[in-house]
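Reposting from the mailing list since nobody answered there.

I have sequence plus structure tokens for a pair of proteins and want to know whether others read the tokens the same way I do. The first protein:
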Amino acid sequence: MRRHLLLLVALLLTACANHVPIEPSQALPAKDSPLGAALIAQSRQHPAGQSGFRLLSSSTEAFIARAELIRAARQSLDLQYYIVHDGLSTRALIDELLKAADRGVRVRILLDDTTSDGQDDEIALLGAHPNVQVRVFNPLHLGRATGITRALGRLFDVTLQHRRMHNKLWLADNAVAVVGGRNLGDEYFDVEPNLNFTDIDLLGAGPVAEQLGQSFDQYWNSALSKPIEQFVSFPPSARDLAKTRRGLTDYLNAAQIEQRENYQRLMDYQDHPRLAGWLNELIWAHGSAMWDAPTKILKSEPDPQLLLTSQLGPELTNVSEELMLISAYFVPAEDGLTYLTGRADAGVSVSLLTNSLEATDVPAVHGGYAPYRKALLRHGVKLFELRRQPEQEASYNLSGSSESSLHSKALVFDRRKVFIGSLNFDPRSILWNTEVGVLVDSPELAGEVRRLTLEGMAPALSYEVRLENGRLVWIAEDNRRLHRIDREPGGAWRQFNAWLAKVIGLERLL
């Protein structure tokens, strides 16, 4: 009976894997595209080696930048994402991507296999276009057919499957890139009615975009990246793609009526393009792209040289006056606690903006963060937790949503340098997942991020957590009056989830 059961499990987990030739490819030279040539000419007006930057702090700007970069591209589009959710914003971008491919633009799409879970056939439809290639990173090879077998397959290979590619990158003609915290989906562009993420992206042009192109190539050509066609029984045909595109057109036409307000806001770029103006108003400064090597996920204890955090190390060590952290998911662990309290003890003003228990979309993460609060506060670290504000005018979602959860990831060093990327300050980002981001040496750009952070820390938007007589209290402002809350804000179910995560020791996996 036991042998028969094991055989049945093995048969259920067996994946259909087609042999598909894998050919390496590289980012195309930026100078060969009109977009790249224009930016090279613009860069000559600034010191050698500088790149141009613009903050994309609102969800509308973040969407418009991606859509217009598709329209501006003439030779290549490289997209790398952890999560892609279906919805109006995603379908609108896919429509633009296919139109770019129609005019001869090479499109390479690299997705973490979390996104493709159960969606192989749908994703493979994009690859039916001769100018579109789709690969999945760290794919599950066992049991892809059903939800149950996928869960079993991941369980059988948990040491590798819990390590994910968390990178978010959008690159046009190897000349202009967008990095930051946003995945693709309506919740990231203020279209989802129940939850919208407050996030921050950075548009980078020039040398930093070419550096990000190098990072994309490393992942694209990694042995861990596999063509999606390997995992479908019957590769879709051109006819299948044409049918899908007709359905996509019908969906967008219907959305123009049924989701009129969101449709008009997102599609405003079609009549009022903004990218050209943004590219003429860039902040030029020295910047460096930083990323984890894709082989990071193969290491049980990552080589420090493979970690993005090692590249950030000098900035973390040298900060001398002020350090601001913005992290949606914050679990410092013992090493982070030692670092932050050490900086505070050395006279550095250290402040953190993260989610409160009532605002986070992952209450378990709060259970990993909460035990460190008292120690941080004793050493003078200032803690601010974004509030949930479903019925108030004030909202720290820069796109104007009335309910939001913080999803941003940024660091501001001494009001001079700023890091923006996909990196959360938790063990999952530091040890298990791969990440990407950009460090910019610009007091002007750092000042913009600092100003937005201070807005988010305001008592009408965030709780300030304080330590009084050994107990935590939360300071908030309602109706223009400050008041103190003695019990952690958040419902019973969220309290239970956070407590359970703490009890069973999930910290290193959060």
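The second protein, same order (residues first, tokens after):
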Amino acid sequence: MELRQRALQVLCLTDPDQKAAAALDLQAQLATYSIADTFPTDTVDPASLPGHPARPALMRHTEVARRSPATAQGRAILIHAIAHIEFNAINLALDAVWRFDAMPADYYRNWVQVAAEEAMHFGLLRDHLRAQGHDYGDFPAHQGLWTMCEKTQHDIVARMALVPRTMEARGLDATPQIQKKLRQVGTPDALAAVEILNTILRDEVGHVAIGNHWYRWLCERQGINPETHYAELVKKYEAPRLKPPFNNAARRQAGFTEAELQWLQQG
């Protein structure tokens, strides 16, 4: 079967468990797929993407409640929010596979790998929620990640710049802060969540690195300065302003330059 067609089929799945399992299977069976140079993206109804379940209820990010992780309910809401990010991240990776034509085969293989790892993260978080008497869908969520995906659907350079290395890179900064709060709580469920976040942080460094690699590859192909062009893309697509503290060690590991880190610090 053709890889990009299958990625689109998985993207359209609405059941979270089915989508996660299919993303993992796509990675496991990767060697059996062919990769098309072109794909008829204009035949797909944007309103059908991404496939998602009836729950959680989707709201504006300003309307989603935030609770202190000091309470069991607050920790459940926090883990649910992260699980929703990971579910959306499966969709983002699959969209990067099917939507953009004429990229090297390694580009498509990289994003299939990301989709599978995001599916694994989602499974870990959903199992943790279930162990605490909750489930994915129990609390409202927002679609901030997917909104940027829609904004950049016609520009692969902007997609690589503003989704993996901007929106998702925020997780490199936020995760250690979340872990610190959970360690302070110190309950068994909080400490178990810290361990899950260790796995997620490790893998997310690799995902942001993939975004950095392909952003720079595309800029080089087009004769664009990646650092100055990034600032232009942030303004054009109204990307969220990133605020400190920044996890500079993780960002360096993911391929950010010293000039880029300085630019972030300067706001």
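Reply #1 (J.P.):
I read it the same way you do. The two ends are 46 Å apart (CA to CA).
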